[in-house]
Amino acid sequence: MEVQSVCFLDLPFRMRVGTMFLFFCIFGWGNGLVTADTTVCPCTSPNVRTVLFRNADCFKECWNNDEIILLYSRRLFQAVLPKRMPVRTSFLIKYIKLCLGVIKKMELSKRVHYLMMSAMADVFGGYLQAFGIPLAIAEYYEGANSYHETKQADELLTEFKKLLSTNGGSWTKQIYIKRSNHVTPYIVESPIKKNLCSTIVTNNEYLSFRKIKQKSVTIAMPYLDDAQHPSAIAIPLKDKTLYSLFTNKSSDILLRYYSGVTHCLLSPNDLNKDIICATSPSLHTFNLNFHKWLISEIYPHLHDETWYPGFGSVFRLFETLSLKGFPKPFESVNETEITSPTLACRKTTTSNSFFILCVITFVIMFWLITWVVYFLLGAS
Q1: Does 91 have pLDDT greater than 60?
Q2: Is Transmembrane a UniProt keyword of this protein (predicted)?
């Protein structure tokens, strides 16, 4: 099918004004728009920028039909972006998949379907890169997100990038997400029912918590293969000592390690106490060294763009150590980093009516997009 070009000056006045307004909204020009460098009303739709257009396109005088359709479709999809961040990433993923399902079920020509999918991928891909993925990773490190949920968000972003043949460089950069104030501490269960000391490699293969007074014990700290760009971790667990940081199998290794070592270092006098209140000198020394290791080796990577599944629930360990008197890691935001304006509007509850309203809004906007597309095709 031949694609006709439309000169900008030949468009109706309202369409010319609307088109320029769309470009200003997409590229983030002006004082009232949400970009990585501005702070505005916290409950406005975030500007995630675009990989479909360039700044130079604002000065084009002639566009073809596909470009006009893509521009209008993209702006309408921008309008259905969540203005409030759901309390869980799983809600966001569910919403995006519902939107994808609506488009896939519609009977559209291949050309229109591709344009719709491209516009939607640009909007939701940019949103995931800037907001969704950082939130998913932060929740994963806090123990609020499972590996599967975080992986779903990562796979969706990869799918959108593949569709658009982009690395996402023109989208808004990832936001800086501060640690939540409501992280659940990791409480080690009593070894009376199940002693996990047997899962730890020590200097005494037959060590048990009952022999701690008679024998000294040495337990190695975990070790990252690279301080700057880690990809594997060596950890003294008997079933396996070397793990990739990027697989599901490593998602709970820090918790398993901490539980096992705690059981090894408990003294018999601590068996009837809350483990948080354990007074074993050996355990206190371990907690001190483990806290230093977490701060120096793990914490610097918790705000990397790379997701490390091997660091799952690490903030729960920080919370546990804080109950023992160790300081929590200090967070500072660099000048180039921002806190998401949408986090101020983060919902504390999400009901079924929220999803129903989202779906209804999306369907209405989708039909509006379809009407605009066929109107433009008919006009050409």
Answers
A1: yes
A2: yes
Report d(CA 242, CA 225) in Å as an integer. 10
- Residue 82 amino acid letter: P
Q: Please check whether residue 255 is in contact with residue 302, taking contact to mean a CB–CB distance below 8 angstroms.
A: no
Among 148-157, 264-273, 304-313, whose mean pLDDT is lowest? 264-273
**Contacting residues for 61 by C-beta, under 8 A, at least 6 apart:** 7, 8, 9
- Segment 32-38 mean pLDDT: 32
Please, is 24 exposed, middle or buried when counting C-beta atoms within 10 Å of its C-beta (0-12, 13-18, 19+)?
Answer: middle
E-strand ranges in 130-221 read none
Please tell me whether residue 149 adopts helix, strand or coil conformation.
helix
Residue 345 near residue 314 (C-beta atoms within 8 A): no
Closest CA to 370 of 122, 140, 119: 119
Sign of the dihedral through C-alpha 329, 42, 80, 3: negative
CB within 8 A of 368, min separation 6: which ones?
76
Residue 50 phi, psi (nearest 5): -150, 150
- In this structure, are residues 283 and 266 in contact, taking their beta carbons and an 8 Å threshold? yes
Cα–Cα dist 134/140, whole Å = 10
| Rg of the Cα atoms in the chain | 26
CA 99 to chain centre: 19
Q: For residues 297-335, b (16+ Cβ closer than 10 Å) or e, as one string?
A: bbbebbbeeebbbbbbbbbbbbbbbeebebeeeeeeeee
Q: Where are the alpha helices (DSSP H) in the chain?
A: 13-27, 65-78, 89-105, 110-127, 133-141, 147-164, 253-265, 281-293, 314-323, 352-379
pTM: 0.77
- pLDDT tens per residue across span 63-88: 888 888 888 888 888 888 887 776 77
Quickly count: other Cβ atoms within 10 Å of residue 72's Cβ.
Answer: 22
At 104-141, the pLDDT tens digits run 887 778 888 899 899 999 999 999 999 999 999 999 99
pLDDT of residue 154: 95
Q: What is the rounded CA–CA span in Å between residue 315 and residue 142?
A: 5
